[in-house]
């Protein structure tokens, strides 16, 4: 079960929306706390592609390793990030519909240790606040 979800309809073809989102270098336009994302592996983007994300959290730059763990072109992909033991997975599904593309996102946050487990809801709320609007930003960016 997802810790949080979102969905948007974007008035663009599925391949355009998918291609824009899967290029992780575009993430800073969709997530305001992300400063940059750099591809760490060579070749086409797909399962196993790795990135290094730098984001600002409470005035500090924090790096996270990101890997695409599931990938089906123009249909779905899942990323897993690890930032100091906080593991976040985002699963994106893309559906061609009459109005364009419906994008659905599910987020799962994994914490470890007793204190982290006790504060998981608090951590999920922070992640949702920081990243939960990414599909709304995507819609705004693509429909300009």
How would you characterize this protein structure?
This protein has helices at 14-22, 27-30, 114-118, 120-131, 134-142; strands spanning 4-10, 34-39, 50-57, 60-72, 76-83, 86-97, 100-110. It is of the alpha+beta class and 144 residues long. It has a single domain (4-142), classed as Alpha-D-Glucose-1,6-Bisphosphate, Chain A, domain 4. The longest helix has 12 residues, at 120-131. The mean pLDDT is 91.
Features:
144 residues; alpha+beta; Alpha-D-Glucose-1,6-Bisphosphate, Chain A, domain 4; seven-stranded antiparallel β-sheet; 7 strands; globular
Mean pLDDT: 91
| Class by alpha and beta content | alpha+beta
β-strand percent reads over 45%
Straight-line N-to-C gap = 34 Å
Under the CATH scheme, the architecture is: 2-Layer Sandwich
Anisotropy-based shape: globular
SSE succession: EHHEEEEEEHHH
Number of domains: 1
| Strand runs, count | 7
Strand order of the largest sheet: 1-7-6-5-4-3-2
The largest pleated sheet is described as:
7 strands, antiparallel
Distinct helical segment count = 5
Radius of gyration: 15 Å
CATH C-level category: Alpha Beta
Overall helicity: 25-40%
Report low-confidence residues grouped into runs of 5 or more: none
Spell out the CATH superfamily: START domain
Q: What is the third-level CATH name, the topology?
A: Alpha-D-Glucose-1,6-Bisphosphate, Chain A, domain 4
């Amino acid at each position: 079960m997802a810790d949080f979800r979102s969905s948007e309809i974007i008035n663009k073809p599925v391949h355009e929306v998918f291609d824009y989102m899967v290029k992780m270098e575009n993430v800073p336009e969709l997530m305001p706390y992300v400063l940059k994302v750099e591809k760490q592996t060579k070749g086409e983007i797909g399962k196993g592609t790795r990135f290094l994300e730098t984001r600002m959290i409470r005035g500090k730059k924090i790096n996270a390793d990101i890997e695409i763990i599931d990938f089906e072109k123009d249909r779905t992909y899942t990323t897993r990030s690890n930032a100091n033991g906080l593991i976040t997975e985002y699963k994106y599904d893309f559906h061609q519909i009459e109005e364009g593309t419906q994008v659905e996102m599910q987020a799962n946050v994994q914490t470890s240790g007793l204190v982290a487990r006790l504060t998981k809801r608090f951590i999920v709320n922070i992640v949702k606040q920081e990243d939960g609007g990414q599909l709304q930003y995507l819609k705004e960016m693509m429909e300009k």
